[in-house]
Amino acid sequence: RMCTFAVQPDGSVAPLTDDARAQLERRIDAMAKDALRTLCLAVRFAPAGEAARDFTDDDEPALAVLAVVGIRDPLRPEVPDAVRRCIKAGVTVRMVTGDNVTTAVNIAKNCYIYDEAAGHVCMEGPQFRELSDGEKEEVAPRLRVLARSSPTDKLELVKTLQRLGEVVAVTGDGVNDGPALKKADVGFSMGLSGTEVAKEASAIVLLDDNFVSIVNAIKWGRNVFDSIRKFLQFQLTVNFAAIFFMFVAILADPEGDAESAPLQPVQLLWINLIMDSFAAVALATEPPDDALLDQRPYDRNEPLITPFMWRKMIAQIVMQTATFLTVMWAGEPWFDSAQPTDGRDAHGTFSRAHHTVMFCVFVCTQLVNQFNSRKIRQEVNIFSHLSRHMLFVFVWTFAAVVQVLMTQFGGDFVFVQPLTLAQWGLVLALSALPLLWGLAVNLLPASYANSPTFWQRGGDAVVAGDGDDGDASGGVDGGAAAATTDGGGDGDGETEGKEDDSVAVAVSARGPKAVPRTPMEVYQMRREPSGNVAADRWGAATWFVRNQVNVVSAFGATVASATSTSRRDDRVRAR
Q: How far, in whole angstroms, is CA 284 from its chain's centroid?
């Protein structure tokens, strides 16, 4: 449009006729349809005798066209497949570019972004800019290509999508992309070609400037969030099963003897080690799988615990508590543990042999339940991809071996006595119940397993999730609880947690019971006995429940607060 002359093949200059202009425009359109970026090369001749000077916008262009060239910027071979994987993962990809409409549409078609048959829309930036907010919200869901756009148009598109409730990620490399990168929920800047302004405004820096890295970021983010859910599912199941087991056992003791509690202090410490440190390493380090991209995307208000997870945890808690209480009260004839092997082991309601049985059944049940906790969706095969997660296999095997060694050789320190092969066989048989119970839950119809209530049928719950980073810590009744979660675009995620049950080793002035063995003894060391056995028993039970609930609450607060510093940590890690 700025050219009024044309340089002829012989070097002469002639006015640019309408036919010649139309021919050039047809050539430009043909190049654009072939996904070429077109450039017009033109020159301006200064009048003879005029001094050299810079031309301004006020001067008439009077350019003479030399040629029209097309530049091809080929797609990377892996980009079309990466876009298809994003679409398969439920992520809508939109292209915002400065190219003309024809070029942009053809590029978008080549990488599966734009499909006319699906009702997709292509617009130019000035057109989109002139729409009202209502019209923008109406066209945005179908908009796939925004051509001839400015950075302001990109920012406006981000705001429009966020008003519609979408979680928006934006890529950019220039200074003008800063506002859109900052406004987006997740900003991706280019590590090789991006400016420092863009990198500072973004949440994640792509070191290789490759779209495939965005797909990897989605996969790792979902994997980290799933790892948090797996650990939380296992942690809540173990804690509440222990709470109900100990609570009922202490209240049901007819003599109110603290030594008759089913689990002793050293045993509780080992159980807590399995629940926290070992479980964190085993469940939070599973590498991501491409199957994560088959899940539905996360809702902005996605709950940390899905309806299916609630049903799975409640089913396991009920089954495990019933199993433990049955073994405690009716299991002595089964295990032949009614009489102690040595009179010195006899104390309280149960023999040392039966204490050992209860301890082994509880620990082995939790070890078996770790396999159930590997899955947070309705999957029948809980052992799938186990060969890819050798760290889980190693940690689980280590905990199982230590449990056997502790039982057979722990003696007075752990308050156990060796079990026979027959007793071990029955322990393992009872410990396998979580697998059968979990299989039954997984075989429930999806409408019952995932609906908000058993009597109200609904659609499947959204079960995927994003990984956020953070760290937090909190005190628990004189002890301590802490957890950290790392994850994000660089593909690294782990969850670690540790807690102290506040069972202090102290010297008591009340005789031979120098070291507290049960929650009731700890409770009595904290306050003077009332002389009423029932009141003391109730006080010990409520203290134990309150202490365990505080542990669970602190862990939940830790996970909730672990979303506060994700962008800062992701940016540092990606760099």
A: 10
